[in-house]
């Protein structure tokens, strides 16, 4: 029987540990299991986090094994090699697929029934691989997708317009990577059309500004990796938000990576698309009203990922 207040994080590097810290502060779970190939590392992270419990919500954090997670409501997969300077997320696929397969063999052996949340990169490809190899229903396998990219877009637009980024409504979709696209056609600031709001704030060179902001979103990870070696705080907050949506049954909308089954005329891959999230996982993938240019960009992105997936040993 699933314990709806219990989760596991597999992989205790910078990303996994930061996610554990974010989840601890959110108070979503009462029990958190940390698993890492380096058991000492998992134990150390659990100890360090546990010492902060007197100042946050009551919970239990401990290092464990795969036998400890059979009743977890959510299993977060962060294990994998990190993106290096000048390396794209797709460059990681071979190494991280091997790691993913080893994890999934452990999970399927124990017939886990929780929701799988893939964070390792390239997240869209690995989300599809996790669904294909685990034989779980599509709604129970999702990736962190472009939730972080969308936050970056909202932040940069907020900075550009001088408004609270929480009032910016826009989304990055497609690949969590170099071919991702912004849905400018339906973007707005508190229901005011984005172009109109830009003009209200004295910005009139819309096309140039949008191209620069999208470029900055796409290059954010590279810029951070160049400066500090890895990105982890932003993705930790994004994953905590996803977990909150699912565990609290919010029916909120986030652009998670999800297996497509005919949406946008696409199948045989996972893409980051705004979806309604609740206890069941991905409740519905939304068919956004895209401009012709945006739709073509999404199809081009899908074709690129499908060509990568076609070369993977997923049988």
Overall pLDDT metric: 95
Question: Largest sheet, described in full?
Answer: 6 strands, parallel
Number of helices: 9
Determine the strand fraction and express it as a percent band.
15-25%
The helix/strand order is EHEHEEHEHEHEEEEEHHHEEEH
State the helicity in percent bands. 40-55%
CATH class of the domain at 3-143: Alpha Beta
- The counted number of beta strands is 14
Distance between the termini: 30 Å
Give me the CATH fold name of the domain at 3-143.
Answer: Rossmann fold
CATH homologous superfamily annotation of the domain at 3-143: NAD(P)-binding Rossmann-like Domain
Query: From the alpha-carbon coordinates, what is the Rg to the nearest angstrom?
Result: 19 Å
Strand order in the sheet with the most strands? 3-2-1-4-5-6
Structural class: alpha/beta
Indicate the CATH architecture of the domain at 3-143.
3-Layer(aba) Sandwich
């Amino acid at each position: 029987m699933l314990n709806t207040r219990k989760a596991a994080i597999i992989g205790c590097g910078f990303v996994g540990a930061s996610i554990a810290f974010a989840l601890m502060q959110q108070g979503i779970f009462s029990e958190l299991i940390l698993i890492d190939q380096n058991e000492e590392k998992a134990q150390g992270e659990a100890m360090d986090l546990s010492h902060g419990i007197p100042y946050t919500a009551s919970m239990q954090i401990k290092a464990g094994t795969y036998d400890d997670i059979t009743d977890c409501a959510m299993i977060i997969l962060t294990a994998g090699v990190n993106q290096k300077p000048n390396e794209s997320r797709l460059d990681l696929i071979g190494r991280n697929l091997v790691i993913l397969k080893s994890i999934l063999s452990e999970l399927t052996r124990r017939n886990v029934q929780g929701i799988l949340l893939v964070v390792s990169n390239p997240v869209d490809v690995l989300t599809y691989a996790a669904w294909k190899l685990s034989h779980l229903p599509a709604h129970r396998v999702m990736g962190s997708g472009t939730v972080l990219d969308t936050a970056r877009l909202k932040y940069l637009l907020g900075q550009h317009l001088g408004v609270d980024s929480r009032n910016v409504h826009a989304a990055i979709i497609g690949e969590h990577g170099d071919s991702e696209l912004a849905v400018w056609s339906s973007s707005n600031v508190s229901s005011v059309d984005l172009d109109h709001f830009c003009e209200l704030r004295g910005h009139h060179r819309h096309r140039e500004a949008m191209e620069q902001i999208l470029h900055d979103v796409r290059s954010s990870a590279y810029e951070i990796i160049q400066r500090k070696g890895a990105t982890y705080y932003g993705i930790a907050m994004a994953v905590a938000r996803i977990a909150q949506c699912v565990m609290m049954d919010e029916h909120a909308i986030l652009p998670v990576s999800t297996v497509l089954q005919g949406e946008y005329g696409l199948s045989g891959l996972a893409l980051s698309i705004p979806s309604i999230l609740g206890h069941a996982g991905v409740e519905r993938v939304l068919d956004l009203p895209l401009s012709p240019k945006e739709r073509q960009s999404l199809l081009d992105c899908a074709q690129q990922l499908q060509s990568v997936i076609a070369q993977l040993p997923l049988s």
